[in-house]
């Protein structure tokens, strides 16, 4: 179904506004959603565990008259993204952790030149070559500006194959809306999971025209320039202030999270991506056992969903942050609660190196937290 | 009295004393030896050039002074033959390049070719990090500025869905043959329809004269103070020959811009590269041996002699690969 449906969707023919449910792998769902979002060009380099994305697009993108290029390197791929995005196209690249490190210079340039594009990181364990198994060890790299220069960009973290599809489409929309690179950040396991997915219709409402694109002057206007060099400090400062004003707009308007039985919870688990989904199973088991436990799952890692914490901060409770790393998002949770004037205890539980925590394991940690007091 | 003698129509020669950086290349280029430095200083603190007093009648309006001026500060009009030499209409902005730097000359050639071929509206330039990074200021077309070494990848991104665009890169040796050698090589392997303008001055110019991948054996630079030697620095790369070996590269040539005849020839090559881009839809490479007076610590005129005597000996100019079916006309 996928190639034909994708073709129809891209052509804007009699494609259904919504299609599904169909069984899809996480990586394939990202690729298919990108086609349905009208992606014009895709550039990437093979790396496990995201290679299903280029394989899917190698098959389905060229028949649509779109560009699929397997680049000679990650660096080359992200710079092809720069060039193509600079002509106003919808463009994507995907990789896994070490490959994203290689792309960071290019991502910084893209942020500096304010080019819309989508970058997918199907995270694997690190540092170094690490492992091909899924992890969440790139949280800091993703949300704190992995490249140089202190830029910000939307970072979205799906927990299901459905969200892989939905958030890919949203990434394209946010990219064009804010003229920014966007990052879809998931762990390798989700990329390999099969689930039913319903593909939603593309939403381009309210997107600004790309008048800045370098598509040749064609005698109708002054030349356009795609550029990230601004030598004079006051000019660069003004440019950067605009960049961060844009980030502030994102913080106001683009926070996303899932809150599950958190309102009356004495202990709230905070976890993103696959870990959030596992924690949800733990919450269900603990609730069945009479424990007042809830979940707050950040979907946008930048902007961090401060508003999700706001109602919770009205009374005392405990927080347990669970991540597949040594503790990265926990810093943002602590900062957020502090900013909300909330001094509730925050604990951390993490597995590393590609090890996935089980719901039972998380439940045990929660029970231990209760036993230590503070939460009832 | 009847007017029997042919009326003498003097040429119009103009030296812009504000733009002039006093490099003296035009003085060297004038076959009549009628250009000199003025006694006064301009706002740059240099002596701008001028025509010697009462010498206009000696001027043959050959245009060499205008052709060799990297900054477009000279205009010569041959009013008899209706020929004009000087800054092209597409050129804009005063250049940041050092006095006597060949980059300005190459900008002028590019602007002239783009104008001549009527591709101004579809031309997109890619300038990557190095001295060429501000190229967008000087030719009035769409530009993208690229990261160091990545120009060819950016170019492919621009042209992949826009076959109507005429994309070229402007790259130095450190950019194209050093940090970006992988990108450059694969552009040739893919056969991207890009025109590569490769300025080879055998040194890192922007950072102040360090060893480049194309620095010659024995060449002294800031990071090879005793001269390039094999044990420490390895051998220089002959990049254009290497690119020409790839199937996706259909036209490769090495040129120089050290005097007026060489500049005129190089313009022809650049024109052919753009024609080849249109005809063969694959990579065209024009390597231009260029001077770097600042990096080489030489006067501009001496720097051009260095190109003639040293660079040309190490990197043989001429056509390295002819396109299938012969040179585009």
- Rough outline of chain B: globular
Specify Rg of chain A, calculated over alpha carbons. 21 Å
- Count of the domains of chain B: 2
* Proportion of helical residues of chain A: 40-55%
Q: What fold name goes in the CATH topology slot of the largest domain in chain B?
A: Rossmann fold
Oligomeric state of the chains present here: heterodimer
Helix segment count of chain A? 13
Q: Supply the CATH class of the largest domain in chain B.
A: Alpha Beta
Beginning-to-end CA distance, first to last residue of chain A: 51 Å
Q: What's the number of helices of chain B?
A: 11
Strand order of the largest sheet of chain B: 7-6-8-9-11-10-12
What structural class results from the helix and strand content of chain A?
Answer: alpha/beta
Indicate the CATH topology of the largest domain in chain A: Rossmann fold
CATH level-two architecture of the largest domain in chain A: 3-Layer(aba) Sandwich
The most extensive interface, with participating residues per chain, is: A-B, 40 and 35 residues
Computed CA radius of gyration of chain B, to the nearest angstrom: 20 Å
Major β-sheet of chain B, in short?
7 strands, mixed
Major beta sheet summary of chain A: 7 strands, mixed
| Mean pLDDT across every amino acid position of chain B | 95
Highest CATH level, the class of the largest domain in chain A = Alpha Beta
Number of separate strands of chain B: 12
């Amino acid at each position: 179904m996928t190639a034909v449906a994708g073709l129809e969707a891209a052509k804007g023919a009699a494609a259904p506004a919504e299609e599904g449910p169909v069984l899809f792998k996480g990586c394939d769902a990202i690729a298919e959603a990108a086609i349905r979002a009208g992606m014009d060009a895709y550039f990437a380099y093979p790396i496990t565990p995201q290679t299903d994305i280029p394989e899917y697009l190698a098959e389905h993108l060229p028949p649509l008259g779109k560009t699929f290029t397997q680049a000679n390197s990650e660096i080359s791929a992200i710079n092809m993204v720069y060039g193509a995005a600079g002509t106003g196209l919808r463009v994507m690249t995907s990789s896994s952790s070490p490959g994203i490190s290689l792309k960071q210079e290019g991502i910084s340039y893209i942020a500096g030149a304010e080019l819309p594009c989508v970058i997918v990181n199907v995270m694997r364990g690190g540092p170094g070559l690490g492992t091909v198994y899924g992890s969440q060890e790139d949280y800091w790299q993703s949300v704190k500006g992995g490249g140089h220069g202190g830029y910000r960009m939307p970072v979205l973290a799906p927990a299901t194959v459905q969200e892989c599809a939905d958030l890919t489409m949203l990434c394209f929309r946010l990219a064009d809306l804010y003229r920014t690179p966007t990052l879809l950040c998931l762990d390798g396991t989700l990329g390999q999971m099969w689930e039913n997915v319903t593909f939603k219709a593309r939403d381009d409402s309210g997107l600004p025209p790309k008048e800045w694109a370098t598509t040749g002057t064609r005698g109708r206007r002054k030349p356009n320039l795609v550029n990230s060099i601004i030598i004079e400090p006051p000019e660069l400062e003004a440019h950067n202030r605009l960049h961060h004003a844009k980030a502030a707009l994102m913080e106001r308007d683009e926070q996303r999270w899932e809150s599950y039985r958190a309102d009356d919870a004495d202990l709230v688990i905070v976890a993103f991506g696959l870990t959030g989904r596992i924690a949800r199973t733990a919450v269900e088991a603990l609730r069945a056992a009479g424990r007042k436990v809830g979940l707050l799952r950040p979907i946008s890692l930048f902007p961090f969903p401060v508003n999700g914490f706001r109602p919770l901060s009205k009374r005392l409770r405990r927080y347990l942050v669970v991540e597949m790393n040594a503790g990265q998002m926990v810093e943002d949770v602590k900062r957020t609660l502090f900013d909300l004037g909330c001094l509730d205890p925050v604990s951390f539980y993490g597995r590393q190196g590609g090890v996935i925590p089980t719901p039972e394991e998380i439940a045990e940690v929660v029970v231990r937290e209760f036993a230590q007091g503070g939460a009832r | 009295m009847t007017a029997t003698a042919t009326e003498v129509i003097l040429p119009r020669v103009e030296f812009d004393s504000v733009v002039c950086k006093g490099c003296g290349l035009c003085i060297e280029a004038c076959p009549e030896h009628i250009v000199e430095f003025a006694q006064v200083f301009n706002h740059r603190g240099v002596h701008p050039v001028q025509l010697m007093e009462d010498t206009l009648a000696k001027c043959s309006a050959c245009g060499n002074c205008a052709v060799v001026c990297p900054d477009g500060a000279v205009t010569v009009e041959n009013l008899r033959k209706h020929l004009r030499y000087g800054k092209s209409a597409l050129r804009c902005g005063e250049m940041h390049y050092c006095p006597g730097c060949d980059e300005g000359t190459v900008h002028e050639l590019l602007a002239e070719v783009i104008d001549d071929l009527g591709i101004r509206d579809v031309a997109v330039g890619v300038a990557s990090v190095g001295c060429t990074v501000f190229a967008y200021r000087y030719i009035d077309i769409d530009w993208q500025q690229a990261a160091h070494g990545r120009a060819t990848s950016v170019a492919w991104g621009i042209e992949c869905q826009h076959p109507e665009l005429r994309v070229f890169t402007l790259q130095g040796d450190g950019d194209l043959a050093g940090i970006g050698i992988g990108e450059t090589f694969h552009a040739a392997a893919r056969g991207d329809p890009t025109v590569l303008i490769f300025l080879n001055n055998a040194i890192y110019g922007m950072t102040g004269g360090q060893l480049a991948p194309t620095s010659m054996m024995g060449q002294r630079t800031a990071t090879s103070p005793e001269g390039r030697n094999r044990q420490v620095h390895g051998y220089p790369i002959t990049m254009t020959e290497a690119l020409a070996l790839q199937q996706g590269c259909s036209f490769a040539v090495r040129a120089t811009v050290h005097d007026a005849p060489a500049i005129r020839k190089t313009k022809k090559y650049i024109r052919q590269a753009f024609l080849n881009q249109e005809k063969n839809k694959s990579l065209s490479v024009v390597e231009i041996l260029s001077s770097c007076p600042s990096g080489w610590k030489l006067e501009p005129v001496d720097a051009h002699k260095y190109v003639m005597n040293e660079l040309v000996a190490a990197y043989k100019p001429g056509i390295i690969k002819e396109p299938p079916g012969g040179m585009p006309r």
